[in-house]
Protein backbone atom coordinates (compact mmCIF):
# COMPACT_ATOMS: atom_id res chain seq x y z
CA UNK A 1 0.00 0.00 0.00
CA UNK A 2 1.36 3.41 -0.98
CA UNK A 3 1.90 5.82 1.90
CA UNK A 4 -0.19 8.94 1.40
CA UNK A 5 -2.68 10.86 3.50
CA UNK A 6 -5.81 9.16 2.11
CA UNK A 7 -4.46 5.60 2.42
CA UNK A 8 -3.12 6.22 5.91
CA UNK A 9 -6.40 7.71 7.12
CA UNK A 10 -8.31 4.71 5.76
CA UNK A 11 -5.79 2.42 7.47
CA UNK A 12 -6.45 4.13 10.82
CA UNK A 13 -10.22 4.07 10.37
CA UNK A 14 -10.29 0.38 9.42
CA UNK A 15 -7.75 -1.03 11.88
CA UNK A 16 -7.70 1.39 14.82
CA UNK A 17 -11.14 3.10 14.80
CA UNK A 18 -9.44 6.50 14.82
CA UNK A 19 -12.71 8.46 14.64
CA UNK A 20 -13.80 7.04 18.02
CA UNK A 21 -10.70 8.23 19.87
CA UNK A 22 -10.92 11.38 22.00
CA UNK A 23 -7.32 11.96 23.08
CA UNK A 24 -4.14 10.98 21.25
CA UNK A 25 -0.44 11.42 21.95
CA UNK A 26 2.56 10.53 19.83
CA UNK A 27 6.14 9.79 20.88
CA UNK A 28 8.33 12.03 18.72
CA UNK A 29 12.09 11.54 18.73
CA UNK A 30 12.61 13.89 15.81
CA UNK A 31 13.62 11.07 13.47
CA UNK A 32 12.05 10.61 10.06
CA UNK A 33 9.53 7.95 11.18
CA UNK A 34 8.08 9.80 14.17
CA UNK A 35 8.01 13.17 12.39
CA UNK A 36 6.15 11.59 9.49
CA UNK A 37 3.62 10.01 11.85
CA UNK A 38 3.20 13.32 13.70
CA UNK A 39 2.49 15.15 10.43
CA UNK A 40 -0.12 12.61 9.29
CA UNK A 41 -1.77 12.18 12.70
CA UNK A 42 -2.07 15.91 13.27
CA UNK A 43 -4.11 16.34 10.08
CA UNK A 44 -6.33 13.36 10.87
CA UNK A 45 -6.92 14.45 14.48
CA UNK A 46 -7.94 17.94 13.34
CA UNK A 47 -10.44 16.44 10.90
CA UNK A 48 -11.93 14.29 13.67
CA UNK A 49 -11.78 16.82 16.55
CA UNK A 50 -9.33 14.66 18.50
CA UNK A 51 -7.07 16.31 21.09
CA UNK A 52 -3.51 15.71 19.85
CA UNK A 53 -0.23 16.03 21.78
CA UNK A 54 3.31 15.31 20.61
CA UNK A 55 5.78 14.22 23.32
CA UNK A 56 9.57 14.27 23.09
CA UNK A 57 11.88 12.79 25.71
CA UNK A 58 15.21 14.53 26.24
CA UNK A 59 17.20 11.46 27.26
CA UNK A 60 20.42 13.32 28.16
CA UNK A 61 22.54 10.55 26.63
CA UNK A 62 24.21 12.77 24.02
CA UNK A 63 25.47 16.31 24.41
CA UNK A 64 23.12 17.44 21.62
CA UNK A 65 19.96 15.84 23.04
CA UNK A 66 18.53 19.05 24.55
CA UNK A 67 19.27 21.04 21.39
CA UNK A 68 17.57 18.35 19.27
CA UNK A 69 14.49 18.26 21.53
CA UNK A 70 14.19 22.04 21.25
CA UNK A 71 14.54 21.88 17.45
CA UNK A 72 11.67 19.39 17.31
CA UNK A 73 9.62 21.66 19.59
CA UNK A 74 10.31 24.69 17.38
CA UNK A 75 9.24 22.92 14.18
CA UNK A 76 6.09 21.40 15.68
CA UNK A 77 5.10 24.74 17.19
CA UNK A 78 5.32 26.28 13.71
CA UNK A 79 2.98 23.51 12.54
CA UNK A 80 0.54 24.43 15.37
CA UNK A 81 1.05 21.05 17.05
CA UNK A 82 0.81 20.91 20.84
CA UNK A 83 4.18 19.62 22.07
CA UNK A 84 5.87 18.87 25.40
CA UNK A 85 9.42 17.88 26.32
CA UNK A 86 9.99 15.40 29.15
CA UNK A 87 13.49 15.07 30.61
CA UNK A 88 14.98 11.80 31.79
CA UNK A 89 17.09 12.46 34.88
CA UNK A 90 19.57 9.64 35.47
CA UNK A 91 23.05 8.67 36.60
CA UNK A 92 25.77 7.78 34.08
CA UNK A 93 24.71 4.63 32.20
CA UNK A 94 27.51 2.31 31.16
CA UNK A 95 25.69 -0.79 29.84
CA UNK A 96 22.44 -1.82 28.13
CA UNK A 97 21.96 1.84 27.18
CA UNK A 98 19.32 1.49 24.47
CA UNK A 99 17.12 -0.88 26.49
CA UNK A 100 17.25 1.27 29.64
CA UNK A 101 16.54 4.39 27.60
CA UNK A 102 13.54 2.72 25.94
CA UNK A 103 12.09 1.64 29.29
CA UNK A 104 12.59 5.12 30.77
CA UNK A 105 11.05 6.73 27.68
CA UNK A 106 7.89 4.62 27.90
CA UNK A 107 7.54 5.24 31.63
CA UNK A 108 7.90 9.02 31.29
CA UNK A 109 5.48 9.23 28.37
CA UNK A 110 2.88 6.85 29.82
CA UNK A 111 2.96 8.63 33.19
CA UNK A 112 2.40 11.93 31.38
CA UNK A 113 -0.52 10.43 29.44
CA UNK A 114 -2.14 9.08 32.61
CA UNK A 115 -1.76 12.42 34.39
CA UNK A 116 -3.35 14.26 31.44
CA UNK A 117 -6.15 11.78 30.68
CA UNK A 118 -4.64 10.71 27.36
CA UNK A 119 -5.70 7.15 26.59
CA UNK A 120 -3.87 6.44 23.31
CA UNK A 121 -0.19 6.70 22.46
CA UNK A 122 1.02 6.33 18.87
CA UNK A 123 4.55 5.07 18.19
CA UNK A 124 6.28 5.04 14.79
CA UNK A 125 7.75 1.52 14.55
CA UNK A 126 8.00 0.39 10.93
CA UNK A 127 8.06 -2.80 8.85
CA UNK A 128 11.87 -2.59 8.90
CA UNK A 129 11.90 -2.20 12.70
CA UNK A 130 9.86 -5.39 12.95
CA UNK A 131 12.44 -7.31 10.91
CA UNK A 132 15.28 -5.99 13.09
CA UNK A 133 13.44 -6.92 16.28
CA UNK A 134 12.73 -10.47 15.09
CA UNK A 135 16.34 -11.09 14.03
CA UNK A 136 17.67 -9.61 17.27
CA UNK A 137 15.50 -11.97 19.29
CA UNK A 138 16.47 -14.98 17.18
CA UNK A 139 20.13 -14.21 17.84
CA UNK A 140 19.38 -13.97 21.57
CA UNK A 141 17.67 -17.36 21.61
CA UNK A 142 14.08 -16.19 22.05
CA UNK A 143 11.15 -18.56 21.76
CA UNK A 144 7.80 -18.11 20.02
CA UNK A 145 6.76 -15.13 22.12
CA UNK A 146 9.98 -13.25 21.36
CA UNK A 147 9.99 -13.79 17.61
CA UNK A 148 6.33 -12.75 17.45
CA UNK A 149 7.87 -9.31 17.39
CA UNK A 150 6.18 -5.96 17.91
CA UNK A 151 2.39 -5.83 18.28
CA UNK A 152 0.24 -3.38 16.31
CA UNK A 153 -1.60 -2.56 19.53
CA UNK A 154 -0.59 -3.21 23.14
CA UNK A 155 -1.23 -1.76 26.58
CA UNK A 156 1.55 -0.27 28.69
CA UNK A 157 0.77 1.15 32.14
CA UNK A 158 -2.94 1.32 31.22
CA UNK A 159 -2.20 3.33 28.04
CA UNK A 160 -3.15 1.97 24.60
CA UNK A 161 0.05 1.90 22.53
CA UNK A 162 -0.68 1.91 18.78
CA UNK A 163 1.85 1.28 15.99
CA UNK A 164 0.20 2.01 12.62
CA UNK A 165 3.48 2.18 10.64
CA UNK A 166 4.28 -1.53 11.11
CA UNK A 167 3.01 -2.28 7.62
CA UNK A 168 4.95 0.57 5.96
CA UNK A 169 8.57 0.35 4.85
CA UNK A 170 11.22 2.88 5.76
CA UNK A 171 11.74 3.69 2.08
CA UNK A 172 8.05 4.64 1.75
CA UNK A 173 8.31 6.99 4.71
CA UNK A 174 11.47 8.64 3.39
CA UNK A 175 9.89 9.14 -0.03
CA UNK A 176 6.76 10.70 1.52
CA UNK A 177 8.78 13.05 3.74
CA UNK A 178 10.91 14.27 0.84
CA UNK A 179 7.83 14.86 -1.32
CA UNK A 180 6.18 16.85 1.48
CA UNK A 181 9.42 18.68 2.38
CA UNK A 182 9.00 17.89 6.09
CA UNK A 183 11.78 18.49 8.61
CA UNK A 184 13.44 15.64 10.52
CA UNK A 185 16.63 14.97 12.48
CA UNK A 186 19.20 12.26 11.83
CA UNK A 187 19.97 10.24 14.97
CA UNK A 188 23.74 9.68 14.99
CA UNK A 189 23.38 6.64 17.26
CA UNK A 190 21.65 4.82 14.38
CA UNK A 191 25.09 4.41 12.82
CA UNK A 192 27.04 3.43 15.94
CA UNK A 193 27.95 -0.24 15.49
CA UNK A 194 28.50 -0.71 19.24
CA UNK A 195 24.72 -1.18 19.49
CA UNK A 196 23.30 -4.63 18.67
CA UNK A 197 20.36 -3.18 16.74
CA UNK A 198 22.69 -1.27 14.42
CA UNK A 199 24.72 -4.45 13.78
CA UNK A 200 21.51 -6.31 12.94
CA UNK A 201 20.32 -3.47 10.70
CA UNK A 202 23.56 -3.62 8.74
CA UNK A 203 23.33 -7.42 8.48
CA UNK A 204 19.79 -7.22 7.11
CA UNK A 205 20.86 -4.57 4.62
CA UNK A 206 23.60 -6.86 3.29
CA UNK A 207 21.27 -9.87 3.00
CA UNK A 208 18.20 -8.02 1.78
CA UNK A 209 18.35 -8.88 -1.92
CA UNK A 210 15.17 -7.72 -3.62
CA UNK A 211 13.71 -7.03 -0.14
CA UNK A 212 13.13 -10.74 0.55
CA UNK A 213 15.04 -11.00 3.86
CA UNK A 214 13.04 -8.23 5.55
CA UNK A 215 9.85 -9.68 4.10
CA UNK A 216 10.60 -13.19 5.37
CA UNK A 217 11.49 -11.97 8.84
CA UNK A 218 8.11 -10.23 8.98
CA UNK A 219 6.44 -13.43 7.74
CA UNK A 220 8.21 -15.39 10.49
CA UNK A 221 6.88 -12.88 13.03
CA UNK A 222 3.34 -13.33 11.71
CA UNK A 223 3.57 -17.15 11.90
CA UNK A 224 5.03 -17.05 15.42
CA UNK A 225 2.28 -14.66 16.53
CA UNK A 226 -0.36 -17.10 15.32
CA UNK A 227 1.26 -19.96 17.28
CA UNK A 228 1.57 -17.75 20.37
CA UNK A 229 -2.10 -16.79 20.15
CA UNK A 230 -3.01 -20.49 20.16
CA UNK A 231 -0.90 -21.09 23.29
CA UNK A 232 -2.49 -18.10 25.02
CA UNK A 233 -6.00 -19.30 24.19
CA UNK A 234 -5.27 -22.82 25.46
CA UNK A 235 -3.54 -21.43 28.55
CA UNK A 236 -6.65 -19.47 29.53
CA UNK A 237 -8.72 -22.64 29.24
CA UNK A 238 -6.33 -24.44 31.60
CA UNK A 239 -6.34 -21.48 33.99
CA UNK A 240 -10.14 -21.31 34.15
CA UNK A 241 -10.46 -25.08 34.55
CA UNK A 242 -7.85 -25.77 37.23
CA UNK A 243 -6.95 -22.50 39.00
CA UNK A 244 -8.82 -20.96 41.93
CA UNK A 245 -8.81 -17.23 42.63
CA UNK A 246 -9.10 -16.73 46.39
CA UNK A 247 -10.97 -13.87 48.03
CA UNK A 248 -7.71 -12.74 49.65
CA UNK A 249 -6.12 -12.17 46.25
CA UNK A 250 -4.12 -15.36 45.87
CA UNK A 251 -4.30 -17.92 43.06
CA UNK A 252 -3.99 -21.64 43.73
CA UNK A 253 -3.81 -24.87 41.75
CA UNK A 254 -3.47 -28.43 42.98
CA UNK A 255 -0.04 -29.94 42.47
CA UNK A 256 -1.63 -32.92 40.69
CA UNK A 257 -3.34 -30.74 38.08
CA UNK A 258 -0.14 -28.73 37.62
CA UNK A 259 2.20 -31.67 36.98
CA UNK A 260 -0.30 -33.24 34.55
CA UNK A 261 0.31 -30.38 32.08
CA UNK A 262 2.84 -30.31 29.24
CA UNK A 263 6.11 -28.64 30.25
CA UNK A 264 5.48 -25.67 27.92
CA UNK A 265 2.07 -25.08 29.53
CA UNK A 266 3.58 -25.31 33.02
CA UNK A 267 6.10 -22.59 32.23
CA UNK A 268 3.48 -20.35 30.65
CA UNK A 269 1.06 -20.99 33.50
CA UNK A 270 3.60 -19.95 36.16
CA UNK A 271 4.37 -16.75 34.22
CA UNK A 272 0.68 -15.96 33.65
CA UNK A 273 -0.34 -16.57 37.27
CA UNK A 274 2.46 -14.37 38.63
CA UNK A 275 1.41 -11.51 36.36
CA UNK A 276 -2.25 -12.04 37.30
CA UNK A 277 -1.55 -12.00 41.04
CA UNK A 278 0.29 -8.69 40.67
CA UNK A 279 -2.18 -7.40 38.03
CA UNK A 280 0.90 -6.44 36.04
CA UNK A 281 1.02 -7.44 32.38
CA UNK A 282 3.29 -4.59 31.25
CA UNK A 283 6.72 -6.07 31.85
CA UNK A 284 8.64 -8.68 29.94
CA UNK A 285 8.07 -12.38 30.68
CA UNK A 286 10.08 -13.96 33.47
CA UNK A 287 13.33 -15.53 32.29
CA UNK A 288 12.91 -19.08 31.05
CA UNK A 289 15.70 -20.36 33.34
CA UNK A 290 13.78 -19.14 36.41
CA UNK A 291 10.53 -20.70 35.20
CA UNK A 292 12.24 -24.04 34.54
CA UNK A 293 13.80 -24.01 38.01
CA UNK A 294 10.45 -23.39 39.71
CA UNK A 295 8.58 -25.91 37.57
CA UNK A 296 11.18 -28.60 38.30
CA UNK A 297 11.02 -28.04 42.05
CA UNK A 298 7.21 -27.99 42.10
CA UNK A 299 7.26 -31.33 40.29
CA UNK A 300 9.69 -33.02 42.68
CA UNK A 301 9.09 -31.54 46.15
CA UNK A 302 6.17 -31.74 48.59
CA UNK A 303 6.85 -28.56 50.59
CA UNK A 304 8.53 -25.55 49.04
CA UNK A 305 8.52 -21.76 48.98
CA UNK A 306 9.95 -19.50 46.24
CA UNK A 307 10.15 -15.77 45.72
CA UNK A 308 10.25 -14.54 42.13
CA UNK A 309 9.49 -11.19 40.48
CA UNK A 310 7.67 -9.84 43.53
CA UNK A 311 5.52 -12.95 43.94
CA UNK A 312 5.65 -15.75 46.53
CA UNK A 313 4.96 -19.32 45.42
CA UNK A 314 4.08 -21.66 48.27
CA UNK A 315 3.62 -25.42 47.91
CA UNK A 316 1.66 -26.60 50.93
CA UNK A 317 -0.24 -29.89 51.45
CA UNK A 318 -0.57 -30.64 47.75
CA UNK A 319 -1.69 -27.13 46.76
CA UNK A 320 0.43 -24.46 45.02
CA UNK A 321 -0.37 -20.90 46.15
CA UNK A 322 0.72 -17.71 44.37
CA UNK A 323 0.46 -14.34 46.14
CA UNK A 324 2.12 -10.94 46.04
CA UNK A 325 5.29 -10.49 48.06
CA UNK A 326 4.48 -8.04 50.91
CA UNK A 327 7.59 -5.86 50.46
CA UNK A 328 6.49 -4.95 46.91
CA UNK A 329 3.00 -3.85 47.98
CA UNK A 330 2.14 -0.15 47.75
CA UNK A 331 2.81 1.99 50.81
CA UNK A 332 0.23 3.89 52.84
CA UNK A 333 -2.24 5.92 50.78
CA UNK A 334 -4.83 8.48 51.88
CA UNK A 335 -8.25 7.57 50.52
CA UNK A 336 -10.32 10.28 48.92
CA UNK A 337 -14.09 10.31 48.75
CA UNK A 338 -15.29 8.25 45.81
CA UNK A 339 -13.25 5.72 43.86
CA UNK A 340 -9.64 4.83 44.71
CA UNK A 341 -7.23 2.23 43.31
CA UNK A 342 -4.60 0.81 45.65
CA UNK A 343 -1.62 -1.38 44.73
CA UNK A 344 -3.09 -1.92 41.25
CA UNK A 345 -5.19 -4.74 42.78
CA UNK A 346 -8.02 -3.17 44.77
CA UNK A 347 -10.78 -0.68 44.03
CA UNK A 348 -11.92 1.14 47.17
CA UNK A 349 -15.07 3.27 47.15
CA UNK A 350 -16.02 5.28 50.21
CA UNK A 351 -18.11 8.27 51.23
CA UNK A 352 -15.95 8.84 54.30
CA UNK A 353 -12.96 11.10 54.94
CA UNK A 354 -9.79 10.71 57.02
CA UNK A 355 -9.27 7.11 55.95
CA UNK A 356 -5.97 5.54 54.93
CA UNK A 357 -5.03 2.18 53.45
CA UNK A 358 -1.83 0.16 53.67
CA UNK A 359 -0.72 -3.46 53.74
CA UNK A 360 -1.41 -5.51 56.85
CA UNK A 361 1.80 -6.08 58.82
CA UNK A 362 2.66 -8.46 61.64
CA UNK A 363 2.93 -5.48 63.97
CA UNK A 364 -0.58 -4.24 63.16
CA UNK A 365 -1.90 -7.80 63.33
CA UNK A 366 -0.60 -8.34 66.87
CA UNK A 367 -1.95 -4.98 68.08
CA UNK A 368 -5.49 -4.99 66.72
CA UNK A 369 -6.57 -8.55 65.94
CA UNK A 370 -8.34 -10.50 68.70
CA UNK A 371 -6.10 -13.29 70.03
CA UNK A 372 -8.71 -15.96 69.40
CA UNK A 373 -9.04 -15.03 65.70
CA UNK A 374 -7.77 -17.59 63.20
CA UNK A 375 -7.52 -17.43 59.43
CA UNK A 376 -7.51 -20.32 56.98
CA UNK A 377 -4.76 -19.24 54.57
CA UNK A 378 -1.29 -20.78 54.94
CA UNK A 379 2.01 -19.02 55.52
CA UNK A 380 2.22 -15.24 55.52
CA UNK A 381 -0.37 -14.81 52.77
CA UNK A 382 -2.59 -12.72 55.06
CA UNK A 383 0.12 -10.02 55.01
CA UNK A 384 -0.41 -9.36 51.30
CA UNK A 385 -3.90 -7.99 52.06
CA UNK A 386 -4.93 -4.41 52.88
CA UNK A 387 -5.97 -2.75 56.12
CA UNK A 388 -8.05 0.44 56.16
CA UNK A 389 -7.73 2.68 59.18
CA UNK A 390 -8.52 6.05 60.70
CA UNK A 391 -5.89 7.32 63.13
CA UNK A 392 -8.19 10.03 64.46
CA UNK A 393 -10.92 7.50 65.30
CA UNK A 394 -8.64 4.62 66.34
CA UNK A 395 -10.54 2.44 63.89
CA UNK A 396 -9.04 -0.47 61.93
CA UNK A 397 -10.77 -2.47 59.19
CA UNK A 398 -9.60 -5.64 57.46
CA UNK A 399 -12.15 -5.71 54.63
CA UNK A 400 -11.01 -9.05 53.16
CA UNK A 401 -11.23 -10.78 56.55
CA UNK A 402 -14.47 -9.04 57.58
CA UNK A 403 -12.85 -7.61 60.73
CA UNK A 404 -13.67 -4.18 62.15
CA UNK A 405 -11.82 -3.21 65.31
CA UNK A 406 -12.30 0.04 67.23
CA UNK A 407 -9.76 0.81 69.95
CA UNK A 408 -12.10 3.28 71.65
CA UNK A 409 -15.20 1.04 71.39
CA UNK A 410 -17.13 3.73 69.56
CA UNK A 411 -19.71 2.15 67.26
CA UNK A 412 -21.09 5.36 65.74
CA UNK A 413 -18.60 5.94 62.93
CA UNK A 414 -21.19 5.84 60.11
CA UNK A 415 -18.78 4.38 57.54
CA UNK A 416 -19.62 3.00 54.13
CA UNK A 417 -16.76 1.31 52.28
CA UNK A 418 -16.73 -1.05 49.32
CA UNK A 419 -13.54 -2.94 48.47
CA UNK A 420 -13.33 -4.91 45.23
CA UNK A 421 -10.43 -7.16 44.39
CA UNK A 422 -9.75 -6.57 40.67
CA UNK A 423 -8.56 -10.11 39.98
CA UNK A 424 -11.26 -12.12 41.76
CA UNK A 425 -13.95 -9.42 41.29
CA UNK A 426 -14.98 -10.23 44.87
CA UNK A 427 -16.73 -7.29 46.52
CA UNK A 428 -16.55 -6.60 50.27
CA UNK A 429 -19.02 -4.09 51.72
CA UNK A 430 -18.47 -2.47 55.11
CA UNK A 431 -21.21 -0.48 56.84
CA UNK A 432 -20.30 0.64 60.32
Automatic annotation (TrEMBL):
Q: What is its EC number?
A: 6.3.4.19
Q: Which residues bind ATP?
A: 29-34
Give the keywords, sorted.
Answer: ATP-binding, Cytoplasm, Ligase, Nucleotide-binding, tRNA processing
- Region forming the signal peptide: none
The Swiss-Prot or TrEMBL record annotates one GO molecular function as:
tRNA(Ile)-lysidine synthase activity
Can you cite an annotated GO cellular component? cytoplasm
One GO term under biological process is: tRNA modification
Fill in the domain comment.
The N-terminal region contains the highly conserved SGGXDS motif, predicted to be a P-loop motif involved in ATP binding.
Name-wise, this protein is tRNA(Ile)-lysidine synthase
* Source organism per UniProt: Candidatus Aquarickettsia rohweri
